[in-house]
Design a protein that fits this description.
Order of helices and strands: HEHHEEHH
Strand content: 5-15%
Number of helices: 5
Distance between the termini: 24 Å
Shape: globular
Largest sheet: 3 strands, mixed
Structural class: mainly alpha
Length: about 110
């Protein structure tokens, strides 16, 4: 089922390099409730360098860490080399991302 929406997710996030929670909620079917499916969506977006952002009433976009979204990040070779040496914290990050997603869903 998630395979069918991956193209829509790529299309939505490819121009700016980000997608808002509101747009993400509109694209995801209502019957997705499994945390593993939600994690798969977040992982897919991360693999494709699409940031998930919140959008304030003023139109300002912020990343999940609270930083102002300044635009698409182009990774250069030095950044890619630095990423290889980072420790694996995938389990923690996905748990934090899922918690943030569920908190945002609750706000809606």
């Amino acid at each position: 089922m998630l395979a069918s929406i991956k193209d829509d997710l790529l299309e939505a996030g490819k121009n700016e390099g980000c997608i808002t929670f509101q747009h993400l909620n509109e694209l995801l079917p209502d019957d997705i409730k499994d945390p593993r499916a939600i994690e798969e969506v977040f992982d897919f977006l991360g693999e494709n360098n699409i940031e998930i952002v919140t959008q304030e009433d003023s139109g300002k976009k912020k990343t999940l860490s609270g930083e102002v979204w300044t635009g698409k990040k182009d990774l250069d070779d030095d950044a890619l080399l630095g990423m290889e040496s980072l420790p694996e914290t995938e389990e923690h990050e996905s748990e934090e991302t899922t918690t943030t997603y569920l908190r945002e869903m609750g706000a809606v």
